[in-house]
Amino acid sequence: MPTTLRMIVDQVVAPVPGPLGIYTQALTSAVIESTPPGCQVEGIVSSSLPEDYDRVLQMFPGLSGIYKTSLARRELAAAWQLGLTTSPGPGMIHAPSLFAPLRRHDHAAGDQVVVTVHDLLPWTHPESLTATTAAWHRAMMKRARKHADAIVVPTHALAERLSTVADFGDRVRVIGTAPRPGLHLPADAADRARRLGLPSDYLLTAGTLEPRTGIVDLLEALGRPGVPDIRVIVLGPESWGEVHLANAAEEAGVPPARVRALQVDDPADLATVLSAATAFVAPSHDDGAGTSIIEAFSLGVPVIHSDAPAYVEVSADAGLTVPVGTVGYVNRLAAAVTSVVENDALADRLSVSGTDRAKAFSWLEAGQRVWQLHAEI
Length: 377
Description:
Elements: E1 3-8, H1 18-33, E2 39-45, H2 50-59, E3 65-68, H3 73-82, E4 92-94, E5 112-116, H4 121-124, H5 131-147, E6 150-153, H6 156-162, E7 172-174, H7 189-196, E8 202-206, H8 215-222, E9 231-235, E10 239-240, E11 243-244, H9 245-251, E12 259-262, H10 267-275, E13 279-282, H11 291-298, E14 303-306, H12 309-315, E15 320-322, H13 329-342, H14 344-358, H15 363-376
Parallel strand pairs: 1-2, 1-4, 2-3, 4-5, 5-6, 6-7, 8-9, 8-13, 9-12, 13-14, 14-15
Antiparallel strand pairs: 10-11
Helix pairs in contact: 1-15, 3-5, 7-10, 8-13, 11-14
């Protein structure tokens, strides 16, 4: 009888899969691809529509099957928060988030539950989440501390910060991320660029306008005297709460016509937008994984990033680091952007170093490490 690893893949059929859905798809595919002899992978999905089950099977053709819970996602999240429901039988469970059946189990019999933590926003920036979401994450972290056999994080920087929230001892494992599946420059990139209305030169950044992302800092930097009049594309929504991108740009001294929000779901479209950028700027004050700069590196885009610990770890000097500090961050960002836009030699060097650094990140390796982790515990 084969050994079964059950991956919780519910996020790929969520109403808004988001970054977690991308992570779930990429990691599960890698786990399936790296399945050792005598083993198999099963998917766990909350009670859903038949077409959602079909979509999971199409997305992961190597699954041995799907375990369908009796509860829908919302009810299942509440039940798992209270430890009121059983898991799909004994064996190994790997969760790409804290959404997992965390309760007492028989480790000696081979039962395992491994969860993943991508950031600490419920503790560091609870205002960026709804009160219900933040409370759910804090409750699940408590359950993980009590019942999880291991906790996966994407960076050593996050592992270190996690210790300030909960003591997991030696149960924390670092398994990095990589560029999303399909992020390759397509043959019809020129046509896609025209369809997307991309300008000839632009900076690219990603996120919302909430303060921690640093996008408002970037806009203020671009409004400083002497900074090149380059356009900016923000991969994200046009507004956050009552803050609108055009208004934020105008207040920063940047003509709103130079700034545009763009949301793309197709990896080929994203690759087109990334590869054509003059530079990718990651100004966030806080990040847990640094996946966005890994994706930029993979397409040879020069990267400017803050000194958020995850960025520094992922970049390993392949990007241009800008210290956030307590004062002067906007001016330092302005200087960094100016140097990359106006210095072709520097931009070329960053492009080469980023391309080389991207080779260190692989989903297949991540999948292999998941299997190794479950074998070790």
